[in-house]
Amino acid sequence: MKPLSLLIPVILFVFCVCDFEVKLNCTEQHDDKFPAELYREKICQMPRIIGSCKLKQKRYFYNRTANECLVFYYQGCGGNRNNFKTKLYCDCACVQHAIESNRSDF
């Protein structure tokens, strides 16, 4: 494998993360786990559900009132899709959409 081919994913990751932090510029191209309408209209409106087992996994959920992704500890078993492994995924799926929706209201 060529060294350059190993470097390209790293460069793309750094570029995407830096761009996100500066402008919160997320698109479905960042991750195909973001089917736009599904997340925006359904998942981001779901309540936080911690689950009913004894795991303790750090996750993020979108809080509509605060318009931000907050940390919670998922216990496994049950829950819903408003349960993101990273803050970046949560922000891209829900916070960015809320910002875009507010802009289109004007």
Notes on the protein architecture:
The protein is α+β, with helices and mostly antiparallel strands and 106 residues long. The chain has a single domain, classed as Pancreatic trypsin inhibitor Kunitz domain (Factor Xa Inhibitor), CATH 4.10.410.10. The chain is 42% helix and 13% strand. The protein contains three helices and two strands; from the N terminus they run ααββα. The chain has a two-stranded antiparallel sheet with strand order 1-2. β1 and β2 (68-74) form a beta hairpin. The chain is globular.
Which terms summarize this structure?
106 residues, 2 strands, 3 helices, Factor Xa Inhibitor, two-stranded antiparallel ribbon, BPTI/Kunitz inhibitor domain-containing protein, alpha+beta, Prtase_inh_Kunz-CS, globular
Please give a quick description of this structure.
This protein has 106 residues and is of the alpha+beta class.
With strands numbered from the N-terminus, the spatial order across the biggest sheet is 1-2
Query: Which term fits the overall shape?
Result: globular
N to C succession of SSEs: HHEEH
**CATH superfamily, please?**
Pancreatic trypsin inhibitor Kunitz domain
Question: What is the SS-derived class?
Answer: alpha+beta
Pfam family, one: Kunitz_BPTI
Domain BPTI/Kunitz inhibitor: 44-94
Organism: Polypedilum vanderplanki (Sleeping chironomid midge)
Protein name: BPTI/Kunitz inhibitor domain-containing protein
